[in-house]
Write a structure and sequence with these properties.
The complex is a heterodimer of chains A (417) and B (196). By secondary structure, chain A is α/β, with parallel strands linked by helices. Chain A contains 15 helices and 15 strands. In chain A, the strands form three sheets. A seven-stranded mixed beta sheet of chain A has the order 3-2-4-5-7-6-12, with helices on both faces. Chain A has a six-stranded mixed beta sheet with strand order 9-11-10-13-14-15, with helices on both faces. The longest helix of chain A is centred in the middle third of the chain and has 30 residues, at 214-243. Chain A is globular. Chain B is 41% helix and 18% strand. A six-stranded mixed beta sheet of chain B has the order 2-3-1-4-5-6, covered by helices on one side. Chain B contains six helices and six strands; from the N terminus they run βαββββαβαααα. Chain B has helices spanning 14-27, 107-110, 123-131, 137-148, 153-163, 166-195; strands spanning 2-9, 31-36, 46-54, 69-72, 92-96, 118-121. The chains are: A alpha/beta (417), B alpha/beta (196).
Chain lengths: 417, 196
Amino acid sequence: MLKQTEGSRAVAEAVALSRPDVICAYPISPQTHIVEALGELVKDGSLAPCEFVNVESEFAAMSVAIGASAAGARAYTATASQGLLFMAEAVYNASGLGLPIVMTVANRAIGAPINIWNDHSDSMSQRDCGWIQLFAETNQEALDLHIQAFKIAEEMSLPVMVCMDGFILTHAYERVDMPTQAQVDAFLPPYVPRQVLDPAEPVSIGAMVGPEAFTEVRYLAHARQMRALERIPQIAAEFKAQFGRDSGGLLHCYRCEDAHTIVVALGSVLGTIKDTVDAMRDEGERIGVLGITSFRPFPLAAVREALVHAERVVVLEKSFSVGLGGILANDVRMAMSGTRRNGYTVIAGLGGRAITQASLQRIFTEAIADTLEPLTFLDMDWKVVERQLERERSGERTGPAAESMLRDVGTVASRVS
Amino acid sequence: MFQIRIHGRGGQGVVTGAEMLSIAAFEQGRHAQAFPSFGSERTGAPVVAFCRIADREIRLREPVMAPDALIIQDPTLLHQVDVFQGLQPEGYVLINSTRSFDELGVGEFAQRFRRERLCNVPASEIAQRHVGRPLPNAALLGGFAAISGLITLDAVAHAIRDKFAGKVAEGNVAAATEAFDYVTREMEELSHAQAD
């Protein structure tokens, strides 16, 4: 049924339709509306017999999800930013133990300095944790990915993180097509755990593994993710057969067929990029977009195939590896290794900076002219940076950098854009 | 695509106003996207929310920088925030105030725009009467339906009932209706004055 609703609400309803047994979460913006809505659904009895567990921290949230999943329950949680970092140890345990937990990450920057706005730093910090990471472009896709995530997780015996842009998607009202319970039931079978903690048949989960088998256990996790590379597109096809929508899969190409320039990105910024590409196509530029849905496992072969006919690749990402540059860009470069083409990394939207069509068009035009720097920061205010560098060169006690730069800029969030 | 920007203060229902506007447009079969500017969720702080309405899927996620319409929920913002930033020459402006554009100190500015697309409506006073609190968002949507014709009063009422229930919903529907009638009257008077 078509409805106009908030992204968080849509995701909460999709999770509810997936019949979870245990939901545990600790509130943190911008994820809060999702678990609040689920809490209401549990309280009014419409999710019975699902149990909602209030926990004292994100670490406890993931620990409860691990316990619930190991006891054979379909477990769900959600977090963001600092919350994801606080649960990090348990995040690795969930994947190491092969427990099919589904977690929403409402992507948000990581401090310091304190910043509650959107970028991809949080989920990128966990990119090597062994979870499958799927990125949603729209609220419809976020909703659809959650239903697919339970199926992928339980088939692979691996946890799945569904990443959706905090605020930009979670707090946006837009049209979504909400499936029926019967449709979801037909797509998503009840959870049959591969391993279960049962007092009647005691087993240990999470044994100590020494050097004699640790590499093999880790390789098995990799092998499962490689198997997921095959299953994720198949499950997306099954989803399409049931629900009629192209959601999920490994990646999506847009106007790439004859493109000389292809822009690669994750998440909701793909919409603004597509509008920009349409405008540039109208002016005769041969430019396309590659949206990556499955960031882990990373579809090296599919990315290579999508990009191999382009002359240049622009990776635009909302994440930044300090001391290196792009994170997604690095993975894309690995997919393209051995081929010679111009590659550009554009860091954009950090800490919630708006990514505008005007700025994108300017940067893509520079890329097409091959005048773009290999590593570029979209709409960087160089004057503010230079002033701070100058202060620091003076050698005096210059005080905290962020506060000094803030004084140069003005107050927080004082602009419309 | 038609783009609306709503300016107000934390606690005035700015974000809810944009959300209801998107629901009203959806109700009329349009595509709509509503989202807040984030971070200033403090009572009394300047808040901005956005709404886009179109006949096809809306993919653009940037803030609304060149609005086709402005709804100003708190006139004290006029001289504090650059609320008119990027307003299109053919744009609509609806201000929650009992005072005229001249009295608000923006008369000269208003001359650059089409007079029949600018209007004041005492939305806080109307809301106080019908809802018991000076929350102007729903009344302003009624006024916006009248001045722009972009959405119907029925769709606004539907959106209000989607977000609220019971007495609160009906009070807000009554406020939106009164604001709709008020703006309609203002427009008629202006049109007579222009004809004379």
